[in-house]
Amino acid sequence: WREALSDFIEDFCIFPTAIMKGPVVTKSIKLTWKNGKAVEEEVYSFVSKRVSPLDVYPSPEAESCNDGNFIEHVRYSEAKLASLKNLGLPYNKENIEKVLETGEGKGRPNLDGDIEDEKAEEELRDDQWTANKNVFHGLHFYGPLNAKMLRNWGLPLGVDIDDTDILEAEAILIGSQVIMAKLNKDPLKRRPYFSASYQNRPGSFWGTSLPSAMSAVQKMCNGCARALSNNMALSSGPIGEVYVDRLADDGSIDEIYPRKMIQAVSDPMGAGGRAVQFQIIPSNAAELLKVYEFYERRADDITLIPQHSNHNEKAAGAAQTATGLSMLLESASKGIKDCIRAIDFGVIIPRIEYEFYHLMLGGEV
């Protein structure tokens, strides 16, 4: 849970919406002591995991993970996929063997290549071709499905269910093979996905991310930084102007160093003009820094995360006193508390309720 929540918070600070999945029943190997010896034992346990927002596809009309159709792009190694064969229903052993034999769904996914390239690059996995070389790609679907379709996939349904009935179910598709299908047994038809956003957007699944909220200010800061860098480069040294037809020798004009002597002939116009002149570009660093600092403070106001909340040693005004800093930190924490409240209501509370009712209704680990 701690690892999943830590990864979730990283997404919460970057993406429009962060998603956590759980509880997911996972079989793992645990060391236990028997007769004074360490023994490996396979156990089933509940785990939570962070789901990349780049792998989630909600319905256009969805406002939460429980609305409409919901699809997660899942990935399996060959060993992981093979381990699903012997789990029995709801997994279809025959279809899993077909996928393993044909290699269907292995390698580059039949999805948006730009997203896969971006994801591979951000995760430092080279490109999408290298990152997906030995990976089976599937689509984990949650939503209403036709009963006849579920029967065709091998899901046993009662005789009291007509083929035209619409049932809340989940299924995993790899290539053209449905390797798993089952009904959603949750009484409220909830799904094991939970989401939260830095700033909620009413009526939309996707909220507003922290970078998006400050994007306009960030562009101004970036523009000031580029202008400052260019100005510092131009004003760091003189710009020379040379009349090459007045040089008395063929010496280099692109080298300048102390005590260099330049031979020149007299001005043919008789005006005494110099053959070599230098011009200094004025430095605007002070003005550009003031503009940068102004928009940096605007970012504090927009994100509700002021500098003194990070104990900035250059804080001025009331932040220079203990009492003043305490008051400012209390005021600044209101924005952070809103973010924590979004995580509480969107993830932690429904996640605990989901697992509680699952166990109370007879679920087993």
Shape: elongated
Distance between the termini: 16 Å
- The total count of strands amounts to 10
Radius of gyration: 32 Å
Salient structural properties:
single chain; 365 residues; three-stranded antiparallel β-sheet; 22% strand
What secondary-structure arrangement, pairings included, does this model have?
Layout lengths: L1 H11 L5 E17 L2 E15 L4 E3 L11 E7 L1 H6 L9 H10 L10 H10 L5 H4 L4 E11 H6 L13 E9 L2 E7 L9 E4 L13 H4 L1 H21 L3 E4 L33 E4 L5 H19 L18 H39 L5
Helix pairs in contact: 8-9
Task: Describe the protein's architecture and organization.
With 365 residues, the protein is α+β, with helices and mostly antiparallel strands. It contains ten helices and ten strands. The strands form three sheets. A five-stranded antiparallel sheet has the order 3-4-5-6-7. α8 runs antiparallel to α9 (285-303). The protein is elongated.
Summarize the structure.
This protein has 365 residues and is an alpha+beta fold. The chain contains ten helices and ten strands.
